[in-house]
Amino acid sequence: MNAEDIQQIFFVECEESLEAAEAGLDELKAGTHDDETINAIFRAVHSIKGGAGAFGYVAMQGFTHTFETLLADVREGAVAAGSDLVDLFLLALDCLRDHVDAAQSGGDAPDDAALIDQLTQAQAVNAKPEPSDAAEEEEAGADQAGNTSTADQDLDALLDELMAGGDTPKAAGTADKDGKEPAGWTVQIRPHAGAMINGNEPLLWLRELTELGGECQECHLTELPALDEMNVEEGYLSWTFLMPADAEHAAVADIFDFAGDNCTVTYGEQGATNTAATDTATAAPEPIPTPVETTDTKAAAAPKAAPPSEAKSAEVPAKAEATPPTKPAAEAPVRKQTQAQVNQSVRVDLGKLDKLIDGVGELVIAQAMLTQRLANESLAHIEELSMLDTLVRDIQEHAMAFRAQPISSVFSRVPRLLRELAGTTGKHVKLEISGETTELDKTVIERLSEPLTHLIRNAIDHGVEGAEERKEAGKDPEGTLSLSAEQKAGRILIRIGDDGRGIDREKLRNKAIANGVVDPDTQMSDEDVYNLVFAPGLSTAQSVSNISGRGVGMDVVRQNVKELGGRITIESCPGTGTTFTLALPLTLAISDGMIVQVGEESLVIPLAHVVESLRPIDADLKGMGSGRQLLNVRGQFVPIVPLRKIAGSCRVADNPSTGVLVVVETESHGCAALLVDAITDQRQFVIKSLDTHYRTVDSVAGATILGNGRVALIVDVDHLVQSEATSAASALHPPTPSQTAAEAELAKVA
Amino acid sequence: MTKGHEMTQSTRILTVDDSASMRALLLNALQQEGFNVEQAVDGQDALDWLATNEVDVIITDINMPRLDGFGLIERLRESARHADRPILVLSTESSDEKKRRARDAGATGWIVKPFNADKLAAAVRRIAH
After folding, report:
1. What is the mean pLDDT of chain A?
2. Which of A108, A324, A543, B14 has the greatest CB tally within 10 Å of its CB?
3. C-alpha separations of A748 from A79, A459, A502, A540, A581 in Å
4. Whether residues A17 and A101 fall in one domain
5. How far is A70 from chain B (nearest CA, A)?
6. pLDDT digit string, tens, across residues B85-117
7. Which residues of chain A lie closer than 8 angstroms to B74, CB-CB?
C-alpha cells in the first residue's frame, strides 16, 4: 500500500466521519441526542484532524482543531449545546466538508477565517481557559527535546554495558566523546517494583538521560539480594547520573513523567552523588512532554534507511519468549500479520470491478447458450449443468453486491442542501428520511444525486410556501420534506415529498397551452397534466429565482431518471403537497426474466413484475366491450393485455382461454394479466439497451440475447400496462371539468 | 549485529485505532521497520483479540468508540497477562491532563500524532522488552 492509497482511505474515512458528525448534529438539533451523540461528533472531527495532520493538510488541521476545541468544551459540559451553537456547528461542518473536498481535488482550502472567529468566540463566551496554546508550547518543547536525541546506536551500546557491568566508569568515559563538559548536577534514580509491572522500562530512562548528555557515574548495587531471594519484578538497582550544566531540570523531569510513583528521582549537586537528595520527587511535578513524544508533521514521509541493526540491548530474551504461553504456541503464527479483525476490506479500482461485472454478464449468456445446446442433445438435466447454474448465479449475486451502496450516501447530502436553501429562500424545512439503508447500484447512486438535488430545490422553491402563507393556510410555518427509499417489486422506489401547496392543475395546463406544448382541445387526465411539469421550457413559477424556475431542469430530471432505466411519477394534492416517485432498477446489468412465446417471437417479462401465471377458465373471463377483457383473479378483476402489440405478429393468441395469462404487478397501475401463447423458460438475462443500438420503443425496456443466440425484446411492463390503462380510461371516462374547478383556487406550482 | 535485527523481526505490535487511514499509516511505517503488526479497530476489539493472543508492544489511540484508549490501558493493567505489557499512546491530544490520565492508567509512553515513522520505530524498539 503506498501513501496515495492510504490517502484515499483517509478521504473515504472523512466522508464517513462527516456523515457521522452530521447525523449527530441532526440529533442534537432535534433534541433526540444522548451522551454518546456529542462523543461521536467529537470523534468524527477528531479523526479528520488526525488524518489532516498526517497528510499535511495544514488548513484543514487548523480548522478541525478550532472546531474540536469547542466540541470538547461541549462534551465536557463547559458549554451548553444551545440551538445557536448547533447551527454554528452545522456551518462549521459544511466548511469542513469544503476543506475535505478541496484537499481531495487539490484545490484551495476554503476561507474559514470568519468561521474560526465565530467558533473561537463561542468558546470565549464561556470563558474556559484555552488549552491549545499550552499544548502547542508543550509540543514545541518536546520537539527541542527530541532534537537532542541522536546517536541511538552509541547509547544502546552504552546501555548494554550499564546493564551488564553495573558499575562502569568506563562507560561514562565513552559517552564523554561528544565533548559535553563533565560538570553540572546529578540525578539519582531508583525504580520500584511498580515500574516494571506498569510496563515501564528503566533502561529507557537511562537511555533518555544519556541522550540529554548525562553520564552514568555509578550503579548502586547495595540493595541487590542474593540470587535465590531475587524477585524478577522487583527493582534493586539505582543509578547516579551526572548531567551537564546546561541540561534542564525540566527536561529530565519529563523523562520521568510517566514513571509516576514508580521511580524515586533525586536531584543533587555535582560531587554530592552519594549523599541524600536536595530535591526529591517521587513523581515528575509537572508532567510535560514524555520521552518518546514526537511532533513531526510528515508522518507519511518516505521511508528512510533502516536503523543501525547493531543497536542491541542486553535484556535480550524477547518478551514473547519470556511470557508463559497461555494458549498453544501454534496459534500465534497461524494468524497472519496485518489486517484488522473487523471491517476487512480490499480497495479495487472501479474499472476492474466493472470488467468483472461485464464478464459475469457474458458468462450468464454463455451459460444460457450452453444449456440450450445441451438441451438439443437431451442433456439439459445433467447434474453438472445445474451445479454450473447455481455457481453462475452465486457469482452474479456477489458481483452485483460489490457495486451496491446504501442510498444514505445521497440522502446525507440533503441536510446541507436544505440549509443552503433556507439561506437563499428563507424557508426553513424539516427533513424526514426513511429507508436510507436501502442499497442501490453504485452507478445509480452516483447518477441519482443530480436529479434528486433538482427535485428537492424545486420542492422547496415552488412547492413549500413561505412561513406567512403557511400560517394563513393553517399549516406549521416550518415545511416538511420527506425522503424515503424502499425496495418494491424488484425496483427501488425513492419518494421526495413536500407538504406544500401542491400543483395547480389548471394553471399548469393553461401555461402549457400558452406555450404551445399542448393543444387546448386535448383531453388530459390529472397525470397527463402533472407530467407537463417535465415538458421542456415550462415553468409556472411567477418569479424566476436563481434556484430553480428557469424551466430547464425538470425535463433533464426525467431524462436522467430514464437513462437509469427508471421512471418518475408525480402525485399531487392541492393544498397538501406533491410527491415525486422515482422507480429505479436494482442493477443496471442483469435481471431475472420469464421467457414467453408470442406468435413467432420470444419476449422477456422481467420476473420482478410477475405474480403468477395461469390458464384461465372461461368463467373467470369478463368481456368489457370494444374487445377488452378482464380476468377474475380470486375476486379481483384485472385487465388482460395482449402482448401482440410488442410482438408485432398477427398469428397470436387473442383468446385468453387458449393462451397463458401472466399476472404482473406494476408500480402505478395495479395488476394486469399479460396474454401470451406459452411460457418457455425462466432465466437470467443481460439487458442491452435498445436506445443505444436502435431507438426507444414504447413498452420495450431493452433487448437481450437468448441461449439460442436470438435476440428477444424485454417488455417494459409498467409502460405497457399504463398505456393500455390510459387508452381504456380515455375511452370510458373522459375527464370531468368539476375536478378542475376545485383546484382553481390553488397556488402556483412546480 | 544480526541479533538486533532479529529482535525487530520478532517484535509483535498491536496497533489500536478506529481510523482506517491511521491504521494503514502505522502498518506501513512499522512493517517497513520489520515489525510484525496486528491491528484492532477500537479498545474492545483489542481486548477481545488480546484475550487469546500475545504481543510485545501495544500502540493505542485515545478517542475511540466502544472502549477508548484510557479504558483499554486500565483493563489491560488489571489483567494478569498484560499487566506489564508496554503500551504507547498515539494521539493528537497533548494536554497535560490527558497525559496524566494515561500515565495513571498505566501507559508506558505518549506519542503525539502526526508521528514520525523513524521516531516511532525507535520508541517501539526501546520499550519492547
Report:
1. 72
2. B14
3. 45, 12, 8, 7, 21
4. yes
5. 14
6. 889 888 887 777 888 888 888 888 888 877 888
7. none
Instruction: Say if the Cβ atoms of A53 and B113 lie within 8 Å.
Output: yes
> Interface pTM (ipTM) of the complex?
0.77
Q: Are residues A240 and A167 in the same domain?
A: yes
State the Cα–Cα distance between residues A460 and A548, nearest whole angstrom: 10
Cβ–Cβ < 8 Å for A7, B21: yes
User: Where a domain ends, among A532, A563, A585?
Assistant: A585
Give the pLDDT confidence score for residue A196 in this predicted structure.
Answer: 66
Quick check: A323 and B31 CB within 8 A?
A: no
Q: How far is Cα A462 from Cα A478, in angstroms, rounded to an integer?
A: 15
Model-level pTM greater than 0.80? no
Q: What is the pLDDT of residue A652?
A: 54
Task: For residue A337, tell me if it sits in a domain.
Answer: no
pLDDT confidence of residue A68: 86
- pLDDT (0 to 100) of residue A371: 83
- CATH code, domain with A73: 1.20.120.160
Contact B31 A337 (CB under 8 A): yes
Rounded-to-integer distance, Cα A554 and Cα A303, Å: 54
Same domain as A248, residue A233: yes
Task: State whether A397 and A536 are in the same domain.
Answer: no
pLDDT beneath 50: ranges in chain A: 127-182, 272-342, 540-552, 734-750
A574 and A641 within one domain: no
Q: How many structural domains is chain B composed of?
A: 1
What DSSP line would sit under A5-70, residue for residue?
Answer: HHHHHHHHHHHHHHHHHHHHHHHHHHT---HHHHHHHHHHHHHHHHHHHHTT-HHHHHHHHHHHHH
In a mutational test of the B interface, the residue from A263, A319, A327, A344 whose CB has the highest number of chain B CBs within 10 Å is: A319
Range of the domain at A59: 3-129
Is residue A160 a contact partner of residue A312, using CB atoms and an 8 Å limit? Answer: yes
Q: What is the β-pairing status of strands A700-705 and A590-598?
A: unpaired
Contact A254, A282 (CB under 8 A): no
User: d(Cα A207, Cα A241) in Å, to the nearest integer?
Assistant: 11
Q: End of a domain among A250, A281, A312?
A: A281
What pLDDT, on a 0 to 100 scale, did the predictor assign at position A406? 85
